[in-house]
Each structure stands twice: as C-alpha cells, then as structure tokens.
Design goal:
The chain is an alpha+beta fold. The protein folds into three domains: 94 residues, Tetratricopeptide repeat domain (Serine Threonine Protein Phosphatase 5, Tetratricopeptide repeat), CATH 1.25.40; 104 residues, Serine Threonine Protein Phosphatase 5, Tetratricopeptide repeat (Alpha Horseshoe); 72 residues, Roll (SH3 type barrels), CATH 2.30.30.40. Helix content is 54%, strand content 12%. The protein is built from twelve helices and eight strands. The strands form two sheets. A six-stranded antiparallel sheet has the order 7-6-5-4-1-8. Strands 2-3 form a two-stranded antiparallel sheet. A hairpin with an 8-residue loop joins strand 4 and strand 5. The N terminus is likely disordered.
C-alpha cells in the first residue's frame, strides 16, 4: 500500500513537471514564431492540465497573430471559463470579436476588462473605436478622453479623439488634438505623421494651422525645399456647429492655450443673459473644453477653463468677430 502511494506521488509530480516543460516549449516556439509547434505544445500542456488558463490564452494569442479569429475566440472563452477575472483575456477576446465585426459582443468584453481594471488604457481606446465604427461618436468621445487622461501623450488616442470630434462637427476641438498629434510626431522624429496631422488641421482652424506651420518649418528634419499649404488658404475655424460633449475632461497636456486681447466675462451658461461668474483679464490664458450647441460664424460660445482655475462659458465669436487668440499648447 505504501509502495502504491509513493508511486502515485511520483507519477503526479512527473505529470506536473512535464506539463510545465510543454508550456515552456510552447513559449519558446511563440518567440521563434513557430506557431504550429507552439499550438501543439500548449495542447500537450492542456492534455496533462486541462485547467491551465495560460495555455488557452497563448493559444488565443497565436491564433490572433495568424488572424484566425474564430479559433482565437474559442481559446479566449475557454480561458475565461477557468478565470473570469483576468482583464487582459477579456480585452483579447473583445479584440477578436471586433475583428470578426461582432461589435456588440466586443463592447461587452471591453466593458468587462474596464470593470476589472479601471486603468486599462487600451480597453477604453478599443471601446471608443467600436463605438466610432458604429457611428456612435457621442459615446466614443468620453472613452477616448478617458484613455487620454490615463495616457496623455498617446498619438493614437489623440488622433481618434480628433476624428470623433470632427465627425461631430467640433472643428476647434478636433484641430486641438490633430495639433497634438503633429507635435508628438515631431518629437518622435515622424515628420510624415506631423505633415499628415497638419493637413487635417488646415481646413479646421487657420489660427492653429498657422502656429503648427511655424513648428513644422522650424523642425530640423523638414527639408528646406518643402512647400506646405498656407493657413490663409483655409477657411477660418470651420464647422463650429455642435452639441455639448459630456464626460471627463481631457488632460491639460493634450490641449492648446488661448488668450483674450481684452477683458471678457465668464458666464454660467452659453448666453449673454447668463450669470457672470468672473472675468478673464487681458492676456489671460485659457483652454477650450466644449463647444456649445448652435455655434456658427456669427456667434460661438465655449466652455473654458482659465489658467487661474476659473471655469465657465466664454463668447468666443460675437457678431462675427473672433474674440480670442491661439497660443501654442506644448
């Protein structure tokens, strides 16, 4: 009886060790991009340890790299059955569902990933991308803004937020974020990326395009014979009509500064009849956080946050006259 017990212990120990060896072999095969060998090794691991969650997640990863979405979805779901509290697996499953255009199911998985990890930047970004694909830009914006709050120098998030604002007709806010993409691109040595962002800014805001043009021509990597379109060729602050965006404000690092050439009132609401909360003195700096509904080339209101901390609504265009100036924000 004792001999049988010892034999059983040795056998169990050998099986566990062998499963680990198969798993490590699979990891090595993934690193070597030997994907078929990797899948075989992970399946051998599962034959010995059917509840081995990492093997399922790695099988899902391999199928993801091979763009075999059905197989990836099946593997990730099995991993979640074993451990439903892994936010990365929910994200990976959501990504595979997104690639299969199973958008509503992808939304559910990205939301689960966020519920398990409130700081999961990629999950906010991906969830926003799904809503954008569904043309639900009002839902996409707050998610991109949250991702930007967590990762303020992420060019992809800035770009996606700019695209969403542009779709919503919020030209100034879109231009702000395209500007940020351009500056980050220059800092990273990506001149082509900066030029692409400049071309997006140009039809939205001549003021911001003018500032960015100076940055582009001062960049040492820009060829001297480059000929860029001039901001004067662009309409002034196009597409201001919009509804108010709700949701968390983007990081201050991701926005441009503006200034006023004269003292101006900051009001509780977007109306001259609204209560005055305070004033911006001449030269005071502020950031635009939202654009009001019904903005046009004659009258436009913006919810602003002043450098002094004051928040409220400012009449940025009155009787067709722009009452603010743009400053570089970086």
């Amino acid at each position: 009886m004792v001999t049988l017990f010892l034999l059983l212990c040795v056998t169990m120990g050998w099986a566990q060790q062998t499963a680990e060896e198969w798993f490590n072999k699979g990891i090595g095969a993934v690193k070597a991009r030997e994907y078929e060998e990797a899948i075989r090794s992970f399946k051998e691991t599962l034959a010995l340890r059917p509840d081995h969650e990492p093997s399922y997640t790695y099988i899902g990863l391999v199928y993801t790299m091979k763009a075999l979405w059905d197989e990836a979805i099946e593997a990730y779901r099995k991993a979640i059955e074993i451990n439903p509290r892994n936010p990365q697996t929910h994200y990976d499953l959501g990504f595979s569902l997104y690639k299969k255009e199973m958008l509503d199911e992808a939304i559910d998985e990205f939301n689960r990933a966020i519920a398990l990890n409130a700081g999961f930047v990629s999950a906010y970004q991906a969830l926003g991308a799904v809503y954008a694909q569904k043309k639900m830009f009002e839902k996409a914006v707050p998610l991109f803004k949250k991702a930007l709050e967590l990762s303020p120098n992420d060019r992809t998030v800035h770009w996606n937020l700019a695209e969403a604002y542009s779709e919503l007709g919020k030209g100034i806010l879109a231009a702000d974020h395209y500007y940020h993409v351009a500056i980050l691109s220059l800092r990273g040595g990506d001149r082509e990326g900066a030029l692409t962002a400049y071309e997006k800014v140009l039809p939205l805001s001549s003021e911001i395009a003018g500032i960015l043009l100076g940055q582009l021509y001062s960049d040492k990597n820009l060829p001297k014979d480059s000929q860029l379109p001039l901001p004067s060729e662009a309409p002034r602050d196009k597409d201001r009509q919009s509804s108010v965006v709700t949701g968390p404000s983007p990081s201050k690092a991701g926005r441009l500064w503006y200034t006023v050439p004269t003292r101006m009132n900051v009001r509780k609401g977007p109306s001259l009849d609204s209560e005055v909360l305070g004033q911006l003195n001449r030269g005071s700096r502020f950031r635009i956080m939202e654009e009001a509904a019904g903005n046009n080339s004659v009258t436009s209101w913006y919810r602003i946050e002043g450098e002094s901390g004051i928040q409220g609504w400012l009449c940025g265009i009155h009787k067709g006259v722009v009452q603010y100036e743009t400053l570089p924000g970086l």
